[in-house]
Amino acid sequence: MSASFPPSSVQKAFINDSFNSTMFNNLLTGIYTVLYFANKKGSKNWFVIGTISISFLAYVVLGGLQWFLNKAALIDDGSSLEATFLAFFSPQFAWVIYATDICSFLIDALADGLMICGALTYGTAHFTPSHYLRFCYSVRLVRSITFHIGNLSVSLTTSTGLDLSVVVMAAVEDFNPSSSQGDILNKLLGSSLFVTFATTLVSTTLIAYRIHSVSKENVIQGTRRRVNHVIEILVQSAAVYSLASFAIAL
């Protein structure tokens, strides 16, 4: 074993995490499927239905890709611990990682768009955090970064631009980038996740504040508890999503 090869404990931890993640993803897929078909008919907003439908399909594809990769590593190449570990990073399955990134970025973009739509829905003439939200999202799209692939300089927008740059660069050299390109990919992916963390945190805070302030003025007493429950669900789900993005970025 080379000096740079991870120790057995690290390999076992990685394989264990990948397997547990896939099993948990399958459980969530089942829950999401029931909730999706049970509640889809209750909404008349086709934008919301379309966004959620695409997100649901992307999540199903994401779960299928993870399942395929785990099967290939644990069963097809599971002759030894090292063989199983290396299978996860085999160029043969690089397209799986590439497709996984695309699905993840698509889900992130749709979730942010749906959150923006929710903020604008609650905007009024008195005080509209949606104005700040639009500004934050504009900054996220307009702030540009520059990276180099050989002598090529490309200017891209943050978050969406970062995600697109990862997708483009990952396809370089048939999904087998050089060491320097791999370092750039890691930095771009980390930057995208940090921006996702910050945007989700700010967006959730503004939306929750807006719902709370509007409910104090316009919501009757009997439904205020339901509104507070919606805020609680929003904050809890966004907190988990933000912390997960932050942890992966680190």
Protein described:
Keywords: Membrane, Transmembrane, Transmembrane helix. The chain crosses the membrane at residues 20-39, 46-69, 81-98, 188-209, 230-249. With 250 residues, the chain is mainly α. 77% of the residues lie in helices and 5% in strands. The protein has helices at 8-39, 46-76, 81-87, 94-121, 129-142, 160-170, 179-218, 221-249, and strands at residues 144-149, 152-157. A hairpin with a 2-residue loop joins strand 1 (144-149) and strand 2.
The gist of it:
The chain has 8 helices and 2 strands; from the N terminus they run H-H-H-H-H-E-E-H-H-H. The chain has helices at about 10-40, 45-75, 80-85, 95-120, 130-140, 160-170, 180-220, 220-250; strands at about 145-150, 150-155. The model is unreliable at about 125-160 (pLDDT under 50).
Core attributes:
transmembrane helix; 77% helix; 250 residues; 8 helices; elongated; mainly alpha; single chain; two-stranded antiparallel ribbon
